[in-house]
Amino acid sequence: MRKTTRRLLASLTGVLAGGLLAAALPAQTAQASSWMDRCPSGYFCGFTGTAGDGSMFKTNKSMATLGTWDNKIRSFTNKSSEIACLYSDANYSLNGPDSTYWSQGPGGAGSYSSSLDRKISSVKMVRTERECTGRAYPWWYADPATKAAGFGDLDGNRRPDLLVRDLVGRLWFLPGDVLSTDGAGRLVGSGWNAMTAMTRHGDFTGDGREDLVARDRDGRLWLYPGNGAGAFGARKNIGTGGWNGMSVLTAAGDLSGDGKADLVARDTAGKLWLYPGRGNGTLGARKLVGGGWQVMNRLVGSGDLNGDGKADLVARDTAGKLWLYPGRNNGTLGARALVGGGWQDMQHLLAVGSYDGGSTNDLLAVTNERYAGGQPGRLLGYRGTGTAPTVLKGAEMIDSGWWKLNGVY
User: Where does the secretion signal sit in this chain (predicted)?
Assistant: First the structure.
């Protein structure tokens, strides 16, 4: 269980609401300019005075102990490109009865708070705020499925795996077999914020391995072939341009019934299109599925949810209702059925087969700030029943650490 902590992204204009920290002391313009000028670019600086005056401490790297500067810093500024995590204990520890931390974002604004005054004993420089209290990625575990779902498993052990993109664009592989990896994820690569859409479900290349599809800012579509070990080979361009005309993209599994993974996309006019996979890393001529889909803001290729052996599609409308569109194995969809309401409280929806070791496909969701009166970052699991009309059981919380991510896949 994560220790409750306090976070600060402070500036001279104020501090976090809720009374955790005292209001920042006003600083004269000359004083603010002074401490900004004193601290060199690329550094976090602390001062013995309350307004950037007095002696100055500076660092551009993490420091587990501050030596003679322990509990001496009264005001500070961060002119680095990273987040400075400021701890009340040495060694970035949060294990003491009164341990706490604050995070100071980059940008150079000078800050003072009585709650921080002479209470800083270690400083950690990180890329994302998550790393102040742990890893850059959340915890994930899945039981081995009784049979391969045909999607969700990136490393071939019948456990569904996840991909998460952090706020600075790093893509992380989270293996379902957390017990053998000590919960450790693996960095796939950086620069993924260049992608405006990402999706995965099934094998597009015909080699039996799960692949990833992504669209860049220029509207080009890229296929990243899975290597069967939680990483990807050299990307291949499968759409030279024009994909920015699609507001929603999702890898949908085999909707056409030919045993090959397909892609579904909704254009800005609300038309839903099926792009049939050819099993060789390319897409065939698109086929119109239907119109009126502009009321849907999430699409998920769920696999077979109703137990008829055919891949289905799940969609959430703007009112927060979740709908099941049963597949017919010919590239068309049957009459929709309501799964339930209240799904507007979910930031991410994803399907990765069975996470509980069963033979039915399940659904996962990550909550947003509207959930339960303000509880974002909860990973919820919805076990599949494998039968209609109730295709999903009620929510169960898997983990509460899925906050401040830029995508879950």
Answer: 1-32
